[in-house]
Design a protein that fits this description.
CATH class: Mainly Alpha
CATH topology: Proton glutamate symport protein
Largest sheet: none
Order of helices and strands: HHHHHHHHHHHHHHHHHH
Shape: globular
Radius of gyration: 22 Å
CATH superfamily: Sodium:dicarboxylate symporter
Distance between the termini: 33 Å
Number of strands: 0
Strand content: under 5%
CATH architecture: Orthogonal Bundle
Helix content: over 70%
Number of helices: 18
């Protein structure tokens, strides 16, 4: 069929993902039992994408670092990234606390609220977060460290050019395979969303609707105002950036997993003009240490539970909460349930808010995970653009598939 005869809308993956999400919501709402049977579609798509994450991170970083003439730049990018992560995630924590205090989503009655079993998070909250376990179970961080070492060693090797001439076509081939796998994104998004709506039901949102709206609104404010102003400072548009990663946002919305869009995001950022070394270093690191959405969720959740149990928090206690979350929120990735472990540890440190309140948050966590994941992926893309711009490694290309910001 002549491609020109196909309407432009039907040539974009975004259309099919969005259509799949609409159908999934309908199936989940009207036929919940059947919708729950589609869970495997979302899980298998995410698992398939996860297979690409280690090789893409490794190949991108190794070829990027070994192709750089100045290894000091690698260290500078790393330090600059970690500094940026700390500043922006701390700001997201402050915004989460401030807006929760302002909007007061926890001023509702506890009677009738849905609750889930939170015993596995509340039984030993004082144990805190295990950083060793975090690193040992976080494959992304492990691959990142190995790739950096391999990239540095390769840059010093006399066989660098020969090895690079072999790695570069391999990298292109892996991204080509990813391109074809992404055609399955509508099926993955459909399965993930249909299962969520069918299993938990939209009516689950109603009792804690105020918290949901507050959380989503806060994340929207953070993205459009904070991240938008940061990009504007570097003469980039937040709207054009969001439009350029619309497919990744919809995939994350459907699957509730930011990892499902990690390889695709890295590819998009390179097309936007970010250099390969910056993309390779910042994005994987950001997935573990630049969790803006998770930071907002954690800070708002603590204040929500305090309000729910009518616990007054002094200024000193609010600063204590902020200080604890500034440290522990950096590890709220890679380990299942780590977010709730961090919440339990924070509540235990304050010793005023009942840890059992996590049961209420667990009841709607599935619906809030999408907002966290979307904000996280958007924030990591912005971080990459900022670091690339600040390093003078940002070049907007004029060519097919390139995005003008």
């Amino acid at each position: 069929m002549n491609k020109q005869k196909i309407p432009a809308l039907l040539r974009h993956l975004t259309f099919y993902v969005l259509a799949a999400l609409v159908l999934a919501i309908g199936l989940g709402y009207f036929f919940p039992t059947e919708a729950q049977k589609t869970k495997w579609m979302g899980e298998q798509f995410v698992n398939l994408i996860k297979l690409f994450i280690p090789p893409i991170i490794f190949l991108t970083i190794v070829t990027g670092i070994s192709g750089m003439s100045n290894l000091k730049k690698v260290g500078r990018i790393g330090v600059k990234s970690l500094l940026y992560f700390e500043i922006v995630t701390t700001l997201s924590l402050v915004i989460g606390i401030f807006l929760a205090l302002l909007i007061r989503p926890g001023h509702i009655g506890k009677n009738g609220l849905a609750a889930s079993d939170a015993s596995r998070y509340t039984s030993h909250p004082s144990a805190g977060f295990d950083w060793k376990q975090f690193f040992m179970s976080n494959l992304t961080l492990q691959v990142l460290v190995v790739a950096i070492i391999a990239g540095v060693l390769l840059s010093l090797s006399k066989h660098r050019e020969k090895i690079l001439s072999w790695l570069e076509p391999v990298t292109k081939f892996v991204f080509l395979l990813l391109k074809y796998v992404m055609y399955l994104a509508p099926l993955g998004a459909f399965g993930g969303m249909a299962y969520t709506i069918g299993k938990f039901g939209i009516k689950t949102l109603l009792p804690l609707g105020k918290l949901m709206l507050t959380m989503y609104a806060t994340m929207a404010v953070f993205i459009l105002l904070v991240l938008g102003l940061i990009l504007r400072y570097y003469k980039l548009s937040i709207w054009k950036y969001l439009y350029s990663i619309r497919e990744e946002i919809l995939i994350v919305l459907g699957t509730s997993s930011s990892e499902a869009a990690l390889p695709s995001l890295m590819n998009k950022l390179e097309k936007m003009g970010c250099s390969k070394p910056v993309v390779g270093l910042v994005v994987p690191t950001g997935y573990s240490f630049n969790l803006d959405g998770t930071s907002i969720y954690l800070s708002m959740s603590v204040i929500f539970l305090a309000q729910l149990y009518e616990v007054h928090l002094s200024s000193a206690e609010l600063l204590t909460i902020l200080g604890i979350l500034m440290i522990t929120s950096k590890g709220a990735a890679g380990v299942t349930g780590s977010g709730f472990i961090i919440l339990a540890s924070t509540l235990t440190a304050i010793q005023k808010i009942p840890v059992e309140g996590l049961a209420f948050l667990l009841a709607i966590d599935k619906f809030m995970s999408e907002a966290r994941a979307i904000t996280n992926i958007i924030g990591n893309g912005v971080a990459t653009l900022v670091i690339s711009k600040s390093e003078g490694d940002f070049h907007q290309f004029q060519g097919p598939g390139e995005v003008q910001l």
